[in-house]
Amino acid sequence: MRKLVYTYDESDPEDVKLLGGKGAGLVLMYKQGLPVPPGITITTEACKLFYSNGERLPDGLMDEVREAMRWLEERTGRKFGDPRNPLLVSVRSGAPVSMPGMMDTVLNLGLNDDTLRGLIELTGNERFAYDAYRRFLQMFGSIVLGIDKKVFDDIFEEIKRERGAKYDSELSADDLKEVVRRFKEVLGDKFPQDPWKQLELAIMAVFRSWNSPRAVFYRKANNITPDVADGTAVNIVAMVFGNMGFDSGTGVLFTRDPATGENVLYGEFLPNAQGEDVVAGIRTPKSIEELKNERPDLYKQIYDMAKKLERVKKEVQDIEFTIERGKVFLLQTRNAKMTPLARVKTVVDMYEEGLVTKEEALARVKPEHIIGLLYPRLDESYLKKHGISPIAEGLNASPGAATGRVVFDADTAVEWRNRGERVILVREETRPDDVHGFYASEGILTSRGGMTSHASVVARAIGKPAVVGVEKIKIDYDKREFRVDGITVREGDVITIDGFTGKVYLGEIPTAKAELPREFFEILRMADEVRSLGVRANADTPEDAEIARRFGAEGIGLLRTERMFRRPERLSIFQQVIMARDSEERREAMNKLVPFLRNDFLEIFRVMEGLKVTVRLFDPPLHEFLPSSDELLEKLCEARMRGDSDEVSKLESLLRRVRELREANPMMGHRGVRVGVTYPEIYEAQVRAIVEAYLQLRKEGKDLQVQIMIPQVADYREIKYVKEKAIEPVFKEYGVRMPVGTMIEVVRACITADKIAKEADFFSFGTNDLTQGVFTFSRDDVENKFMHDYLEKGILDFDVFQSLDTEGVGELMRIAVEKGRAANPNLEIGICGEHGGDPKSIEFCHRIKLDYVSASAFRVPVARLAAAHAALREGSGVPNLLIFYNQASPLRNLIVSSCFGFRAISCVNPNSISSPM
Q1: Are 740 and 852 in a shared domain?
Q2: For residue 539, what pLDDT band results from cuts at 50, 70 and 90?
Q3: Is the N or C terminus of the chain more exposed, i.e. has fewer CB atoms within 10 Å?
Q4: For the PEP-utilising enzyme C-terminal domain, which residue ranges apply (predicted)?
Q5: Has 832 been annotated as catalytic?
Q6: Are residue 647 and residue 559 in the same domain, yes or no?
Q7: Cβ atoms 26, 36 nearer than 8 A
Q8: Which has the closest alpha carbon to 46: 215, 235, 237?
Q9: Alpha-carbon distance 23 to 45, whole Å?
Q10: From the CB of residue 387, how many other CB atoms can be counted at a distance below 10 Å?
Q11: Domain of 641?
């Protein structure tokens, strides 16, 4: 039979999965010689057996507990259940990953009418003994027996009112005797006087709390999966008492400030208190600095022990302590949850202090920390203080907080922005034509769409907060308003959106603006020294390029050119290209666009001097640049009613062309290279504009590295044809040569990559379309239709448009890399889809030896860090790579309620580490 109960002497503090975080921390402190009350741990294995056994304790468990309790009795010199010299214990949960407040604790267990008298004789403090007893009765009654806690609270508050006491500490021993009497009336014969029965029931209660609704919800919300934590341990620890008078107390501290990262002890202390009093808000605690002034000797002891733990764990520590009659005991240590600012600062400080290596420092900073520093956040304390609740909630598509006046179309957004208004663009869903509204807006809100919808992708790319898929919002464009749950929000009304949580608020909510500290740039510099994977940016505008360069991008991996055709003065010309009936007419119209395109390229190339820029030739279906059939029909009817024959003829011609271009599945139809094959004049003009911009800047002495990328290639003959008809003639005319490559985004291209590689200087995986093709999922529809069901039912483990499907899409990528490099050893290979900014996907790209990833400008810092993590995980001398699980929840109600942070666990096998949550 496996061993289910361990004493501190028998335990391995590294075995967090078995002992739970709390148990492992206690054992660590014990083995470091720190003052820890002795205890034993029932393992997480016992919890799993408890559930597999129909919520009954495993056979033989209590025998093991009795045997281990003898060790505890020897260490304390007291005996469990002895009426003259009683040993009292706490029974506390402890999962492998911190789940603050989610599971149960029982203090002072072992008290009954007989041991109470023994406790009084032992301590000579009747008031303390009755205070301990009333606490135990209330905890046991509510946690173990399931009696509503409010029943006990009401009795206690009633007695306080009767006695005129404001605080618990003002009640006398006689007052507490009355509390105990009334509590016992509530409990009746349900309360067992046998301490061993108390212990057995308390162990079961702690196990049951693992599957309490709040704990289940917490694990689901924080993605704590069974491979991370599949049960709670139970810690049975000898009681030490902070409620024995004003020379006693209890407190919580951090070895550094968890909000700012400043290297000072931060925390609170409550005299004459026990257990949860500090976090329960019963009395206002004192700052740890006050303890320094009142009892400098105790403060020094605590400081020295805290810093020792920080050096041992190489992490900022969150420590619980109790002072019993002037003696300090440590009750818990765990890696502190901190704000992103504090996390990054403390990691860099510890590196500079020599506490951690560069590799350890990098492993402790996660992409979430970097993201958290880049974007403004809502002031959580303001929401709490004013009791503000959201009016709606959707998907947190792009991080950051934004406030502005509601507008319902992109043109209005631009108009209002130009007159100095901050605006939020609200749409049912967005289209490429709305992009100018994106740039004019503080943020974007849609009632439809998912995490990979147009609004989501563009918002992330340009660093705008976005909340999408808020289905409860009903938009009425005619009335210029939206309604939600009886609330009407009109154009011009102010709302605030939170791209971190997906919540929408009425009115203006204060935000904290992102100010990047020195440590942000230092950690990225360290990442650059470790990573081997290059990091470029997806950038379509000079503004995006400047941001990308500031964030350390090593070039542009994807410059989409379709944006260049959408400006009003160009769109009408491009519509002439689409309407043209022959090659000459098409070429003539396209040549009118060359000066516009050349100027666009000049601006971006100038920003990216010295770095590679990959320009993707025209990719989308042509019909996107024409009015819709419905819109044309409406205008046609109006023209006929006016009798405007010229306009009627023009609109009829345009309508015929729109219908000719209509496709059943345009994303798999006449787009990308297929447009280049059928209408090479479009690609020829684009290449001409690229080359002219390149040559002009070269004359100015600029160092440029430009390459041209052909999208949607499925067969090597496509790229060969386009090069011969549209690219090589321009190169020859101007006497230049640039690398020409292709996006690998078609399944056939992966399988025939060896043939394509002979015609291409580089590959860049377009994994958005490749994923769409592999799954035959419509990226635009899947989020709203069934992705949620697939994830909920476990058919998919994750959204394949957010993280790479390594088994399917990834296998095709691997084939393409192997075949492509076999045929062309000099082939450069990267990725420029949305996955290029996803940490899990970046790790896979590192494993299959891509040369670079390309991400949206605001994801470049994340990609730099994730690429370093990938290098570390491959095995560069970090035996215990730390992983942090995002658990965005209050750390302590009183201490840092507005903070959120990360829990760290050590993973012995770097290859088994999962991605950040």
Answers
A1: yes
A2: very high
A3: N
A4: 522-870
A5: yes
A6: no
A7: yes
A8: 235
A9: 14
A10: 6
A11: 627-662
The domain that contains 853 carries what CATH number?
3.20.20.60
Give the number of residues written for the chain. Answer: 917
Q: Are 663 and 670 in contact (CB under 8 A)?
A: yes
Residue 437 CA from chain centroid, whole number: 27
My answer on whether 390 and 479 are in the same domain is yes
Does 479 lie in the same domain as 545? no
The amino acid occupying position 124 is G
Distance CA 267, CA 589 (A): 70
Structural domain includes residue 365: no
Q: Where are the beta strands (DSSP E) in 797-900?
A: 828-831, 852-856, 882-887
Strands 503-506 and 392-393: what pairing? Answer: antiparallel
Q: Are residues 547 and 444 part of one domain? A: no
The pLDDT of residue 168 is: 83
Joined tokens for residue 222? 């924080």
| Angle between helix 195-209 and 44-52 (nearest 10) | 80
Q: Annotated catalytic residue: which of 47, 832, 845, 907?
A: 832
Cα distances from 709 to residues 545, 731, 760, in angstroms, run 18, 15, 9
Catalytic residue, chosen from 47, 369, 454, 846, is: 454
685/570 same-domain check: yes
Specify the DSSP element, H or E, that contains 303. Answer: helix 296-313
Nearest one of 393, 424, 411 to 492, comparing CA atoms? 424
Report the C-alpha gap between 860 and 550 in whole angstroms: 10
The number of beta carbons lying within 10 Å of the beta carbon of residue 388 is 15
Contact 524, 552 (CB under 8 A): yes
Q: Are residues 559 and 651 in the same domain?
A: no
Measure the CA dihedral 791/796/797/801, to 10°: -90
Of 861, 267, 812, the C-alpha closest to 551 is 861
Q: State percent of the chain over pLDDT 90.
A: 67
Looking up tokens 């901190």 gives: 338
Question: What single string gives the DSSP state of each residue in 587-654?
Answer: HHHHHHHHHHHHHHHHHHHHHTTTSEEEEEPP-S-GGGGS--HHHHHHHHHHHHHHT-HHHHHHHHHH
Within 662-808, residue ranges assigned H as helices are 673-678, 680-699, 716-722, 728-734, 747-751, 753-757, 767-775, 779-782, 788-792
Query: Does 599 share its domain with 742?
Result: yes
750: annotated active-site residue:
no
- Rg (the chain; Cα; Å): 33
The last residue of a domain, from among 463, 479, 512: 512
- Residue labelled with tokens 């390229």: 601
31 lies in a domain? no
pTM of the model: 0.77
Which tens digit of pLDDT belongs to each residue from 224-272? 888 888 899 999 999 999 888 888 898 889 999 887 899 999 888 888 8
Q: Is 174 annotated as a binding residue?
A: no
Facing residues of 898 across strands?
none
User: Whole-angstrom Cα distance, residue 473 to residue 487?
Assistant: 10
Residue keyed to tokens 């600095």: 289
Domain tally, the chain: 3
**Residue for token digits 């100010």?**
515
Residues 185, 191, 192, 196, CA torsion sign: negative
More confident residue, 732 or 440: 732
Euclidean distance between CA atoms 232 and 20, whole angstroms: 6
